[in-house]
Amino acid sequence: MRLVQSCDSVTIISLQRDEILTQLRSAAQTIRAQHPEVESIRFFGSLARREETGTSDADVMIVVTSGYDSGDPLQRIRTFLPYFHLPIGLDLLVYTHDELDRQLQDPQSFLHTIWVESQPL
Asked: 2-120: which CATH architecture?
């Protein structure tokens, strides 16, 4: 949840981290129950680093089995996006286990960086 408080010309926007994480965990539980191909669901970014601000979004990565391939990376995202009903923005990444493993071999890669800071849902 986002809280917005205004006083004269000052607006304070804060994020209720625990409520957002509760909603993310609920979505992750539903996804796991309905999609056996899901190996891992993790959050990363400012929420994982506990550096969120009132305008932060949620960053989520889903790892699916290597045999799962929709043929279209955007279709992977479309499969899981409807499960998230958040009052803030969501960046959703979906990778196969093999794709993730290849990227984790390079410590300079984007996926390596976010994997290190990520936390399971």
From this structure: 2-Layer Sandwich (3.30)
